[in-house]
Specification:
Strand content of chain A: 35-45%
Shape of chain A: globular
Radius of gyration of chain B: 18 Å
Helix content of chain B: 25-40%
Largest interface: A-B, 24 and 29 residues
Structural class of chain B: alpha/beta
Structural class of chain A: alpha/beta
Number of strands of chain B: 12
Largest sheet of chain A: 11 strands, mixed
CATH superfamily of chain B: P-loop containing nucleotide triphosphate hydrolases
Strand content of chain B: 25-35%
Distance between the termini of chain B: 35 Å
Oligomer: heterodimer
Number of domains of chain A: 2
Number of domains of chain B: 1
Order of helices and strands of chain B: EEEHEEHEEHHHEHEHEHEEHH
CATH class of chain B: Alpha Beta
Radius of gyration of chain A: 21 Å
CATH topology of chain B: Rossmann fold
Distance between the termini of chain A: 50 Å
CATH architecture of chain B: 3-Layer(aba) Sandwich
Number of helices of chain B: 10
Chain lengths: 453, 252
């Protein structure tokens, strides 16, 4: 936190300050004092630290300078929305409930809530703040650590809208709840800061999908934060799919607060984007909680895909499992940074971390870093990482059975990725992701074969 | 025309000559065995025929069904009807055995201008073949060879052969690591596939497998050359006398 960093970043910060000044006055529900304070504190924190640099241990392998140096502008006022037809390609078959945000703005006409069971609320956050500010104040901003993370602080400063999901005590939301974030092309570098709040009350169950896509190219930054509150004995699956165009920047944080015996699964699938950083930060705050943090990242060209996890064991008898598989081709750069903190009282913690990587070219790169900090004495923590190439033996074996080289490569890529997909519950979301991976593996096999030929 | 015709085949790995002028002819319907000590070049020959590209063919010619085998990719050789049962079958986590088998069969069928087989038609056919090899259904849903026992892996190779119905099957030390019961089952599976259109080349160090798969011809491969050929009685002679006399002879 040296003063030097603030000084070098200041022209950029100045820009954000101007933008914040204008935003703050007209932002939704700016009359709510607590919300105003939340935003102001967020901005104060952001301007204090500026964007992180690679001197920051948490950003050692990812240089966000390209984000810091781009003069992004907040997309605010009404542009024409894409048509339903434009969005059909992003529909997850079998999922009836979908909120749509275009450049961070809620698109009510493109959203469809479907038939939700009693006790399930799905809407945009801004409208829920207006309707029910007390209930939101109880949670919003209470979990995200803006001290650690200046992108989170920036998001909080510009917090206005995003998805709001509430599952009442004891209620099971059977179908997945999808939230589609669409970035559209602009004549200027465009930024938006979606802010989502998911509250699963005691003994409830839900599946939520955040799907990031783009229509058209252009420079864009989607800086998103989701706070997920998993009440005692709740079961929640969360999916994050990044498939924006190859020039997009995406920084996301999923902050999970887990109650007693809550069971949460987070699945991150990073396929698109130029510079992508996905932070998963669960705090196992109640006894007996279980957290699965599952991830798959597939990069090509000059993509930079950074997976950062901070798993905090704050209570006894909790288990966490991190499994990430990466496939990197071309000049792609992947990062797996898995930090586990076992707090003093979190006895009988069982934490496991595995990162496997497949490098398809000599120029692809992976940085994998386990980081265990254990302050309790009766715990089990294991970690392991592997980096390999496509097995020539496997390739020859498949080909010797008549399978052509490209199909053999595709099969092996899908097989490698399937470990991650096998950890997802069967259903429309997994089927959808499997299809995305198959298509992606096909393109990857094709391009890697072209390079060899 | 012979089904397989190897003429003066020389093969190097890095700067070492492994095969030093192999000549061999096989006709459809015949079973031949290549026997030899460790390091004689048996597996190299098997892998070169299956078109593994880590070997450098420096001279010679191989005709398979009249076509230039050495110009084929591994998948082309397979589609033309060549099958290698691996000495060390490869584990492929994440691909189910059934899916693998169907993909392979459909690749071969497509090459031959036949319609692809869907799962409905494929599974009953596969179950029949499983019975032949006394294999458990459960092995179909498991990943290819992953956590299979040594015997299960070898049986799985013969299962693939049964599904793909090759013109020429090369069994590379399929007997290694098999107990006598498993050996019998594998041999029965192979014998069930003997027919006038199919040739089988049994590559082995030991004679025991040849008690169950009785060859028409036996060739002795020592230091990269076939030093003697004969009938099935040659295998028994080798069992008694070993390869030593040939190794000394080959050196002289």
């Amino acid at each position: 936190m040296g003063s030097g960093r603030v000084a070098t970043a200041s022209p950029a910060i100045q820009k954000y300050a101007e933008s914040f000044g204008g935003f703050e006055k007209s932002a939704a529900s700016h009359d709510l004092a607590w919300l105003r304070k939340l935003r102001q504190d967020g901005f104060a924190r952001f301007s204090e630290t500026g964007f992180p640099t690679t001197r920051d241990e948490d950003w050692r392998f990812t240089n966000p300078a390209a984000i810091a140096q781009t003069p992004f502008r907040l997309v605010r006022n009404g542009r024409s929305l894409p048509s339903q037809k434009d969005l059909n390609q992003f529909q997850i078959p079998g999922v009836g409930c979908r909120l749509v945000f275009v450049d961070g703005r809620f698109a009510e006409t493109l959203s469809s809530i479907g038939n939700l069971p009693a006790g399930v609320t799905v809407c945009n956050l801004a409208s829920e703040i207006a309707r029910n500010p007390g209930a939101i104040e109880q949670h919003l901003g209470r979990y995200l650590d803006t001290q650690r993370d200046s992108f989170g602080a920036l998001n909080t400063a510009f917090l206005e809208d995003g998805a709001y999901v509430h599952i009442a005590k004891g209620v099971v939301a059977e179908g997945p709840i999808a939230v589609l974030f669409v970035s559209t092309a602009h004549e200027f570098p465009a930024v938006n800061h979606p802010r989502n709040l998911i509250v699963a009350e005691e003994n409830s169950q839900a599946t939520i999908v955040e799907d990031y896509v783009s229509l058209g190219g252009g420079q864009s930054l989607c800086n998103t934060v989701t706070e997920l509150v998993a009440g005692d004995h709740s079961v929640v699956s969360h999916y994050m799919i990044e498939r924006e165009h190859a020039g997009a920047f995406n920084v996301s944080t999923l902050r999970i607060q887990q109650g007693r015996t809550a069971d949460v699964a987070s699945h991150s699938v990073l396929l698109g984007g130029a510079l992508v950083r996905n932070n998963i930060h669960p705090v196992l705050a109640g006894e007996g909680g279980e957290c699965l943090i599952n991830g798959l990242f597939i990069g090509n060209g000059r993509q930079h895909l950074d997976n950062y996890m901070l798993v905090e064991h704050a209570s006894p008898h909790c288990g966490s499992r991190q499994f990430y598989n990466g496939i990197l081709d071309g000049h792609a750069h992947g990062v797996f940074h898995g930090r586990i903190i076992v707090h003093k009282d979190a006895q009988k913690t069982d934490a496991k971390q595995t990162n496997r990587n497949l490098l398809l070219s000599d120029t692809a790169q992976i940085d994998t870093k386990p980081q265990l900090e254990i302050y309790a004495d009766d715990v089990k923590c294991t970690h392991g990482a592997t980096i390999g190439q496509m097995e020539e033996n496997s390739l020859f074996y498949l080909r010797s059975r008549g399978i052509d080289e490209m199909s053999a490569r595709r099969l092996l890529l899908v097989a490698f990725a399937s470990e991650c997909m096998d950890r997802m519950k069967e259903g429309p979301v997994r089927t959808h992701i499997e299809k995305l991976i198959h298509d992606h593996a096909f393109r990857l096999a094709e391009s890697s074969l072209r390079k060899i030929a | 025309m012979s089904l397989l015709e190897i003429k003066n085949l020389h093969v190097r790995v890095e700067d070492r000559e492994i095969l030093r002028g192999i000549n061999l002819q096989m006709n459809a319907g015949e079973v031949h065995s290549i026997m030899g000590p460790n390091g004689s070049g048996k597996s190299t020959l098997a892998q070169v025929l299956a078109r593994r590209d880590t070997y450098n063919v420096t001279s010679g010619e191989v005709l398979f069904n009249g076509k230039d085998l050495l110009a084929m990719k591994p998948e082309e050789a397979a589609c033309e009807g060549l099958f290698l049962a691996f000495q060390y079958p490869v584990e492929i986590p994440g691909i189910s055995n059934a899916y693998f088998l169907r993909s392979a069969l459909n690749a071969v069928r497509k090459y031959r201008g036949l319609e692809e087989m869907d799962a409905m038609d494929f599974l009953p056919m596969l179950r029949e073949k499983l019975k032949l090899l006394d294999m458990d259904d459960k092995l179909l849903n498991r990943s290819v060879n992953e956590a299979f026992s040594g015997g299960e892996k070898k049986r799985n190779e013969i299962l693939q052969m049964a599904v793909l119905e090759p013109k020429l099957a090369i069994l590379d030390e399929t007997d290694s690591g098999l107990d006598i019961d498993a050996l019998r089952i594998v041999a029965e599976g192979v014998n069930a596939m003997r027919n006038p259109e199919r040739a089988i080349l049994v590559v082995t160090h030991y004679q025991r497998l040849l008690n169950y798969i009785v060859p028409d011809r036996v060739h002795v491969l020592v230091e990269g050359r076939i030093v003697r050929s004969g009938g099935p009685e040659l295998a028994l002679e080798l069992e008694d006398r070993g390869y030593n006399s040939y190794e000394a002879g080959a050196g002289a």
